[in-house]
Amino acid sequence: MAVVYALWLREVKRYLRSRAQVLASLGQPLMYLLVLGFGLGPVFERAGQGDYLQFVAPGVVGMTILFSSIFSGAGLLWDRQFGFLKETLVAPVPRIQIMVGRTLGGATTALAQGTLVLTVCLIAGFRPHDAAGGLLGALFMALIAVVFAALGTIIGATLKDMQGFQLVMNFLVMPIFFLSGALYPLSNLPAALTVTTRLDPLSYGVDGLRGAFINQSHFGLGTDFAILAVLAGVFLALGARAFSRLQV
């Protein structure tokens, strides 16, 4: 476990030391929260859907965790380019411990980023319905972070250059976000879009956050938790397999 802890701590320290990255990563969530939250609020209320800021805040938190988690895979590519990954892989330790340490480190930094954005949401006027819901929301935030940090590990172990990673961001991560229902309700959608949103892992994460924070769940909290837990196990297993075949 010392290897897992050391690599986890490395990821956390690297995040804490990069203050510019922490502040810059707040830009996009704040845009969605403030511009859409206050801009579309009157439209949302006239449609009888309630307070849009309350609705969109869990989606913005989920988006933040998604992006931060996936970008942990980019760190794997940088380590490969600068030789740190090679030094790690030749160490006399199981590769699965290296993968778990890196993945948990990426998930922890994503969770920290999501918590920071949640704090900004609270300042802007977002209010969870009770303290127990806040604790349950933290559990869903952690599950989202693990699922997509493991996915980031799979991507980072499969690709060999940053150009390929940017393509993944454009053609995989953005659709995951926009199809998750982070910005709009999942009810009364066209049939094709309904099927697509049900195939999106983030849909269950955002829905779980809404159910926990504001007691509005489309799929049900039990379904959200079960699917995210299964996906976390599957992606961790696939990440371990991809990492075991990694060549530098």
From TrEMBL:
Query: Where does it sit, as one GO cellular component term?
Result: ATP-binding cassette (ABC) transporter complex
Cell location:
Cell membrane; Membrane
Q: Which Pfam families match?
A: ABC2_membrane
For this UniProt record, the keywords arranged alphabetically read as follows: Cell membrane, Membrane, Transmembrane, Transmembrane helix, Transport
InterPro entries documented for this protein: ABC2_TM, ABC2_TM_bact-type, ABC_2_transport, Nod_factor_ABC_transporter
The record gives the membrane topology as: Multi-pass membrane protein
Q: Which GO terms describe its molecular function?
A: ABC-type transporter activity
| Domain (ABC transmembrane type-2) ranges | 20-246
TM regions (residue ranges): 20-40, 52-78, 104-126, 132-155, 167-186, 225-243
Would you identify the family this protein belongs to, as annotated?
Belongs to the ABC-2 integral membrane protein family.
UniProt protein name: Transport permease protein
Lineage summary: Bacteria, Pseudomonadati, Planctomycetota, Planctomycetia, Gemmatales
